[in-house]
Amino acid sequence: MDDEDAGRPRRGRHAPEEPADPQLPQPVGADATVRQARVPDVPREPLAAPAHDEPVDPDDQGDPGTTDDPGTTDDAAPRRTRTRGDLVRTGVRGVGQLLVTAGLVVLLFVVYEVWITDLTSDRKQDALSQDLRADWDTGSDDPTVPTLPGGGISEVPLGEGFAFIRIPRFGPDYVKVILEGTDEQELVEGPGHYVDSAMPGEQGNFALAGHRVGKGSPFLDLDQLQSGDPIVIETEDTWYVYRVLAEDDPSGIPAQQIVLPTDVSVIAPTPNGALDGPASGAYLTLTTCHPKFSARERLIVHAVLDGDPIPKADAPDGPPALSEG
């Protein structure tokens, strides 16, 4: 055994051979050509980092053709089931809108009834007044135009104006044309005369009806009349002065009363008497709805003729009672 082998471990029969000394690369000359293998460029896609540093579950990746935008998803989101509370809120909202609409309709109706119809009736009253004055000024001999009670008055056509009513307590400008008839087509134009009642100045009951609110509102303040207040009726050639009855009038007829619409005895020849009974004086009765904005009852005012009729020839500007307001 050599000295060189003395320091090496001994190998068994089947020990692997030691590798040979590696061959050092030989220097390459300057004129040599170096061949290098070309590796194809492979595009690298950046890896998206999981949100919040959480691991990405491959099962949650979904279809690459879909997006998280709810406006572009293929499947619509499921609709929420309506609860009883939703139905109640919808119903309350609908009822509220209905009430608001109904309130506006009622408001418009009130405006029409109170103001618009007043304007319309005032214009009709102006036209009726001009027509009646023109008939009187031309000296019409038409037998339908009322004259003195003893002058043989014939029937006045329905809807025709034949006299004026003045109530000083309502102001010096209160003047209304009285029309024949108490149907709505007459009352929308002014106070109407009950066709079966007496004429101005006659024995019996000269009875008039008029609207209290709207259609000119001729009897709006009828409840403000007091005992002794004058009510002046003007015909073609005569003035008639009636005065509201006293509360303790010997006749027992009240100055004011409130009755049901079916109580027609208030326009009897003697107020509150029999419809076919005799007349006990020359009365004036004014009727209107009560209370205001309602037709549930009737407000009645009774007056009696005060003195003799006054010819217009003696008082062309009217009787002194006109200045008592």
Tell me what you see in this structure:
- This is Sortase A.
- The active site is at 211 (proton donor/acceptor), 289 (acyl-thioester intermediate).
- Residues 1-85 are annotated as: Disordered.
- Residues 1-5, 29-34 and 141-154 have low confidence and may be disordered.
- By secondary structure, the protein is an alpha+beta fold.
- The protein has a domain at 137-323: Sortase, Chain: A, CATH 2.40.260.
- An eight-stranded mixed β-barrel has the order 1-2-3-4-8-9-6-5.
- The longest helix has 54 residues, at 84-137.
- It has helices spanning 3-6, 84-137, 184-187; strands spanning 161-166, 175-180, 192-193, 204-209, 230-234, 238-244, 256-259, 282-290, 297-305, 310-311.
List the keywords.
single chain, 325 residues, alpha+beta, Sortase, Chain: A, 19% helix, elongated, disordered N terminus, transmembrane, transmembrane helix, Sortase, Sortase A
Outline the fold blueprint:
Layout (H helix, E strand, L loop, with lengths): L2 H4 L77 H54 L23 E6 L8 E6 L3 H4 L4 E2 L10 E6 L20 E5 L3 E7 L11 E4 L22 E9 L6 E9 L4 E2 L14
Parallel strand pairs: 2-3, 4-8
Antiparallel strand pairs: 1-2, 1-5, 3-4, 5-6, 6-9, 6-10, 7-9, 8-9
